[in-house]
């Protein structure tokens, strides 16, 4: 399986990066990490899915609002490579899921000693982060459109 974070790496380089990590199984319904937790590892999804949510207060109770769902080959927890190294969303497995946890420090040292690999991982990470930005922007625009429409209805009703 090709992992989006490892695109462009040779099979040997991929093996070396994967050797830094540990395979983990996340039980159905279990949390991988919560918003604000220290981001000590980055995760490559191998099997199953990870739901990334933002906890919000809705009518007086906390609800997890779905931002996106990650599938095999996709990266979760890129906050481990971006200061201040705190997760910006919560991650849970809707079904039993397998991930490879890559410890931040081990990955940092490896990239430092293999700058060509580090460059490729960094460029791939930029794509992952850019995709998230586009997704959040689309969500924000839909919400702004809804607010503008409601305001328009309110203004018309007040006339």
Task: Write a structural description.
There is one protein chain. With 159 residues, this protein is of the alpha+beta class. The protein has one domain: Jelly Rolls. 40% of the residues lie in helices and 29% in strands. The strands form two sheets. The chain has a four-stranded antiparallel sheet. A four-stranded antiparallel sheet has the order 2-7-4-5, covered by helices on one side. A hairpin with a 2-residue loop joins strand 4 and strand 5. The N and C termini lie far apart (60 Å). The mean pLDDT is 93.
- What Rg is obtained from the alpha carbons, in whole angstroms? 19 Å
Mean pLDDT: 93
Q: Give the helix/strand class.
A: alpha+beta
Strand content: 25-35%
The beta-strand count equals: 8
Give the name of the CATH architecture: Sandwich
Instruction: Return the CATH topology.
Output: Jelly Rolls
Reported for the largest beta sheet, the result is: 4 strands, antiparallel
Shape: elongated
Provide a brief overview of the structure:
The chain has 159 residues and is α+β, with helices and mostly antiparallel strands.
Question: Which short descriptors sum up this protein?
Answer:
alpha+beta; four-stranded antiparallel sheet; 29% strand; 159 residues; Jelly Rolls; 40% helix
Give the topology, please.
Blueprint: H1 11-19, E1 22-26, E2 31-33, E3 41-47, E4 50-58, E5 61-70, E6 75-76, E7 90-92, E8 97-103, H2 104-113, H3 115-158
Antiparallel strand pairs: 1-8, 2-7, 3-6, 3-8, 4-5, 4-7
Helix pairs in contact: 2-3
């Amino acid at each position: 399986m090709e992992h989006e974070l490892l695109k462009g790496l040779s099979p040997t380089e991929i093996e070396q990066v994967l050797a830094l990590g540990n395979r983990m199984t996340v039980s159905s319904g279990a949390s991988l990490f919560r918003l604000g937790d220290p981001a000590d590892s980055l995760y490559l999804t191998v099997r199953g899915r990870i739901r990334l949510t933002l906890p919000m207060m809705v009518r007086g109770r906390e609800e997890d609002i779905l931002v996106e769902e990650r599938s095999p080959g996709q990266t979760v927890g890129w906050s481990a490579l971006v200061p201040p190294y705190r997760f910006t969303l919560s991650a849970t497995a809707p079904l039993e899921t397998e991930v490879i946890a890559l410890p931040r420090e081990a990955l940092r040292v490896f990239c430092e000693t293999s700058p060509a690999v580090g460059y490729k991982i960094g460029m791939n990470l930029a794509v992952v982060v850019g995709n998230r930005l586009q997704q959040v922007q689309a969500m924000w625009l839909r919400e702004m459109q809804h607010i503008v429409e409601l305001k328009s209805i309110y203004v018309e009703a007040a006339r």
